Amino acid sequence: AQSVAQPEDQVNVAEGNPLTVKCTYSVSGNPYLFWYVQYPNRGLQFLLKYITGDNLVKGSYGFEAEFNKSQTSFHLKKPSALVSDSALYFCAVREAPGNTPLVFGKGTRLSVIA
Amino acid sequence: DAGVIQSPRHEVTEMGQEVTLRCKPISGHDYLFWYRQTMMRGLELLIYFNNNVPIDDSGMPEDRFSAKMPNASFSTLKIQPSEPRDSAVYFCASHGTGSYNEQFFGPGTRLTVL
Q: Looking at the partner chain, which of B31, B43, B56 has a beta carbon nearest the beta carbon of A104?
């Protein structure tokens, strides 16, 4: 069975500092990994995904994520946080190459403080 | 493309009434998903369709919930009769063929059952 863990319910970071939102996953085979962001009263927006190839994936709004197969992790990062990055972030996994639905983590609320 | 379209955006109803939520997926997408989001349970997958056929409805909470997809461009989620505990934000999402594809979410319908 596929699963995703986001160990932190809340992450606080000062504006301008680097941020990391953690995600670990479990699948039987190879994973397809995704990050989504949800702003208040909005739907989830796709940020980036890892399918294959380079372990460092770059996405929207300056975010990037690093796939680490040995640690089964896919942490979301940004070098310099903005107040506007404050939102709810979801990690999701699907086992490749099947067409099962994405399995989402519980979400991590990021607060960037000015 | 207009993205995934959901209507209504807000619905307030009284307990016992029938509620119908509507979704138009992105043109060409052959997978459609219905999710429910609450503070207590987070994001829950209710049901998903492939090529208009329901594939897995194990997440549908009770027989009061039903979903249909009569054609490739329209789906409904119906609750009859509604109860206060059904109050949540309901999201529709779609993606195209290929498990590497990300899901695109609609803006959601905020349902309040009094």
A: B43
CA distances from B67 to B31, B48, B85, B96 (A): 14, 9, 18, 20
Looking at residue A35, its amino acid is: W
| A76 CB burial (10 A radius; 0-12, 13-18, 19+) | buried
Q: What share of chain B is helix, strand, coil (3-state, %, to 5)?
A: 5, 55, 45
Q: Is B25 on the interface with A (CB under 8 A)?
A: no
Structure tokens at A107: 């979400």
Contact call for B102 and A46, based on CB within 8 A: yes
Here the tokens at position A12 are 């606080």
The CA-atom distances, in angstroms, between B11 and each of A39, B5, B44, B90, B92 are 20, 15, 19, 11, 15
pLDDT by residue (tens digit) across A21-70?
999 999 988 899 999 999 998 999 999 999 988 999 999 999 999 999 99
SS3 call for A15: coil
